[in-house]
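Sequence in, structure out. First:
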Amino acid sequence: MLTPRSADAVFHPELRRYARVLPRTVVTPLTLSVFRRLPAVRVRRSPAGMQSATLRSGVTMRVHRPPYGDNGSAVLWIHGGGFMLGDARMDDALCARLAAETEATVAAVDYRLAPAHPCPAALDDCDEALSWLAGHPDVDPARIAVAGASAGGGLAAALALRARDRGEISLAAQVLIYPMLDDRTGLHTDSDAPTRRLWNAASNRLGWSTYLDGAAPDGVAPARHDNLGGLAPAWIGVGTLDVLHDEAVRYADRLAASGVPTELCTVPGAFHGFDAVAPRARVARNFICAQRAWLCERLADR
């Protein structure tokens, strides 16, 4: 078993100094209660060109348009936060860059959070946002991708499954960044616990139990689905030290075995959320460039 001292050596060289100061998790029952009581802090201005949209249900979206004109494609971005925290505004800078680099309209949805709104509330909100995007006059419904990180990646995968089953919208791509796909992750002792940062087995159990709220996981967790055939092409990225690594790799393998074009990007020595913590590190820049280059290819006008 790794000790804290031996664990330091396995982190990517560009991430070691961050790993030394970051906690193994920031989400516990105690901190979750504190986070919810904190008032929302709005320091940064909204990016230029960002517009808000309100769906029929009252759910809001933040719509980012490319600065030099769009190419008709679109990305539905779904934020992370373990199903319990976060909002669309926190990813404003990310979405603005994504819009500029892909020339796509990027819409970030402010889905409802657990425990006040357990499953399938978040997925229903994302589903409504996808339908709104597909019906937008400036969007080609054949060139829409769903994308998200952590819980957002899990919701993107679940949304891709729902879209396939309904057959109303044919997604061009799904981008799953260290996604939460399997509620069973973390149910057993984690022998690599010293290498976890920001999100660990305990926080993963908390997120899933809060989101499921007693519901059967079979129809909720993407990894529980038996049939993955016919899904949109997928890009999956995850660090080797992320507690979600194994489930992401298994899902990628199952997608590929089902005939779904799949690209898996694993980053040696990287922990959960490393690209957000160290965005200027070369390892993070390469990770982000890889997903966006792949996405540009999938959204190209065909």
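Second:
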Amino acid sequence: MMASPNTCYSTSDADQSLPPDPKAEGDQLIPEGSPGIERTLVDTIKAAGKTPQDLPFDGRSDYDGFTRVGIPAGNFDTGADNIKTEEQVKLWGGTAGQACDPNYHTAKDTIANVNHDALALSGGVIGYVVGLYAQDQGGRNGVPARGDRTRHPLSAKE
């Protein structure tokens, strides 16, 4: 998902700037600090030459287990099963009306179908942001220091 063939550039909407999804079941838990991670990802992607768009922060990714217990999270990907729009083609190129990653969760999801330009950009962005947060234990990058975070208990069904 970091080098999709019909690349889209998206971050999960931790700052909740998207309108609420009327079809969503309940509110997604977004731990404090997550909007700071989103801002850092967006700024870094823009510095790399692309303008990302928001995806719902809906727990549909690997971050869900972390956010459920109050650990701040962010998400950046170049596509999945979302269909690329004409507006997105103007931003990033590619083909409208097709999935950003037509190989997502298929047997064609192999190294042969990697977009090397997207991989170079994504690798740099991810490496930079992970390194930034890994070095900052004091909460200066928008994520509260460990002892200051609000912890969320899991419900009985979880």
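Remark: Strands lie at 10-12, 53-55, 76-77.
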